[in-house]
């Protein structure tokens, strides 16, 4: 995958140099990582595909209550949800068309295999740990606005053409109007 990152005045990606960009041991202190603000969420990239030879990426997201990530799917990306704090309702439709939903609370885990429609809604302000197939972890950076700290940020909503372009780049299918049983 190739990405067009937000750039600083010198033309380098705004978060260039925070992660090693190659497979080597490294450590991050609390609050360190590559930060990007997207919608109302603060995403912190801890490990990218560059460090895992494209295998996977790891990030956290800090999400306000009521935040909704609308229904979508990504054919080549598996996604892990681990709730570090708060509560998140995860919606997923399996290959047979059966819809499932569950509120994940602190310490709960959810997994969505590649290609399945899914969405989530933050029921209580939450912090999530996410693990995804390599490359997809940079979606918040591709669409969001970089920040150099992990503090609260005003919401950032990307222009729709940019959102659609990033979705195409990352093989994300947006599913507007998708209905969830009982919701």
Automatic annotation (TrEMBL):
Q: Which InterPro entries match?
A: Cupin_2, QDO-like, RmlC-like_jellyroll, RmlC_Cupin_sf
Q: Which UniProt keywords apply?
A: Dioxygenase, Oxidoreductase
Q: Which CDD domains match?
A: cupin_QDO_N_C
Which GO terms fall under molecular function for this chain's record?
dioxygenase activity
Please report the stretch or stretches of sequence annotated as the Cupin type-2 domain. 64-128
Kindly indicate where the leader peptide sits in this chain. Answer: none
Pfam families attached to this UniProt entry = Cupin_2
Domain of life the protein comes from: Bacteria
Annotated protein name in UniProt: Quercetin 2,3-dioxygenase
UniProt source species = Kineococcus rhizosphaerae
């Amino acid at each position: 995958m190739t990405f067009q990152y937000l750039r600083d005045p010198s033309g380098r990606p705004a978060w260039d140099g925070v992660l090693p960009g190659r497979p080597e041991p490294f450590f991050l202190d609390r609050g360190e990582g590559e930060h990007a603000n997207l919608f109302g969420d603060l995403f912190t990239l801890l490990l990218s595909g560059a460090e895992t030879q494209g295998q996977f990426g790891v990030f956290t997201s800090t999400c306000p209550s009521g935040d909704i990530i609308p229904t979508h799917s990504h054919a080549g990306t598996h996604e892990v949800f681990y709730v570090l704090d708060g509560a998140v309702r995860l919606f997923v439709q399996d290959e047979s068309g059966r819809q499932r939903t569950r509120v994940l609370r602190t310490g709960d885990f959810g997994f969505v295999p590649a290609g399945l429609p899914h969405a989530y809604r933050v029921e209580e302000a939450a912090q999530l740990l996410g693990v995804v197939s390599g490359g997809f972890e940079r979606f918040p950076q591709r669409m969001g606005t970089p920040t150099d700290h992990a503090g609260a940020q005003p919401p950032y909503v990307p222009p729709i053409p940019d959102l659609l372009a990033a979705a195409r780049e990352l093989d994300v299918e947006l599913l507007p109007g998708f209905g969830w049983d009982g919701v």
